[in-house]
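Q: Given only this backbone (348 positions), what sequence would you predict?
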């Protein structure tokens, strides 16, 4: 496996010794270069940015406690991944699977007055802020099959959740991070033969659930300028309440979902009658662009007359099919806006 640019082995060994002696901030400097990639790893396994926060905190605590017994002649990165992976596998065994609404149940009537109430417990895949990926230098080996942004796309994360925990971990370690079969077996306390078998089953399941083109491929085919123009056109139409323009931008079989509400709909006609379409005064909505799951996203704000400001409503993650919008997943969880670099309110 390729060694990432996190500093020399000698420097890492020195930090290990400093951390063992209890020197201030030594452990933080030791694991800091791995934080972003480990957090993304936990997110891929768990499908939740909040669960990834908890899992990584637990993993780093276990690493700190286990540091006295760590052989500093070994590379640190596989050891950290082993700890983080097993923390996540423990969490997967305790918690229900996470879904996107399109996998959770049949389409709902888009003309209903109120969306069905959310389930009592969190069961939805959550969006992931691109800013936490830490991809300046990249961290996958050439053996990895998926680009790092491709490996956090909503469709990929949702497909991963259909795998048993062990298969999920094997696929990520081998095809996302580029671990060898021997390294993956070491992280999971199993054999390379078992890793190979689990990987073949996992790949078969994933292939059946992923679209033919990733969003990274779709966006590259459009180019930055075209994508920016399309996003601005959609934003202008949403803010002006131009339903016809919005519908014309949709693919024929486009889908719309609004977690944490379980209802979703598919097809232009259904979407034209859904909660996606703006209602009320054209000046009541504003949108700001951001990035989520390696995809273009829009932060939606609605005017609150009492507070005389626009307040967060939903984070709309867009999926493209050529120049048309193939899916909009509107996460009605405005408390996540700061994680995506979005303000908590906008002035009127």
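A: Predicted residues:
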């Amino acid at each position: 496996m390729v060694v990432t640019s996190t500093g020399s082995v000698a420097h890492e060994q020195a930090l290990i010794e400093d951390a063992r002696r209890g020197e201030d901030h030594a452990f933080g400097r030791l694991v800091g270069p791995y934080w972003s990639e480990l957090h993304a790893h936990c997110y891929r396994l768990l499908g939740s940015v909040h669960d990834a926060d908890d899992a990584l905190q637990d993993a780093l605590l276990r690493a700190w406690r286990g540091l006295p017994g760590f052989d500093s002649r070994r590379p640190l990165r596989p050891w950290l991944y082993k700890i983080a992976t097993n923390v996540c596998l423990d969490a997967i065994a305790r918690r229900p699977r996470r879904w996107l609404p399109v996998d959770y149940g049949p389409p709902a009537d888009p003309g209903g007055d109120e969306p069905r109430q959310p389930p009592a417990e969190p069961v939805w895949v959550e969006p992931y802020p691109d800013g936490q990926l830490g991809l300046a230098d990249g961290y996958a080996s050439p053996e990895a099959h998926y680009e790092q942004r491709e490996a956090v796309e909503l469709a990929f994360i949702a497909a991963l959740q259909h795998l048993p925990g062990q298969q999920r971990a094997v696929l990520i370690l081998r095809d996302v991070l580029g671990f060898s079969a021997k390294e993956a077996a070491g992280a999971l306390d199993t054999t390379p033969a078992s890793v190979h078998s689990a990987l073949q089953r996992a790949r078969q399941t994933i292939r059946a659930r992923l679209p033919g083109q990733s969003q990274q491929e779709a966006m590259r085919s459009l180019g930055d300028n075209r994508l920016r123009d399309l996003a601005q056109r959609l934003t202008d139409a949403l803010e002006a309440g131009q339903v016809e323009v919005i519908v014309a931008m949709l693919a024929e079989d486009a889908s719309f979902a609004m977690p944490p509400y379980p209802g979703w709909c598919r097809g232009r006609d259904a979407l034209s009658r859904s909660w996606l379409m703006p209602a009320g005064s054209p000046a009541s909505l504003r949108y700001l662009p951001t990035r989520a799951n390696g995809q273009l996203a829009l932060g939606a704000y609605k005017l609150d007359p009492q507070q005389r400001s626009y307040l967060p409503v939903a984070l709309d993650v867009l999926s493209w099919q050529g120049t048309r919008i193939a899916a909009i997943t509107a996460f009605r969880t405005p408390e996540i806006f700061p994680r995506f670099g979005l303000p908590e309110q906008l002035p009127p």
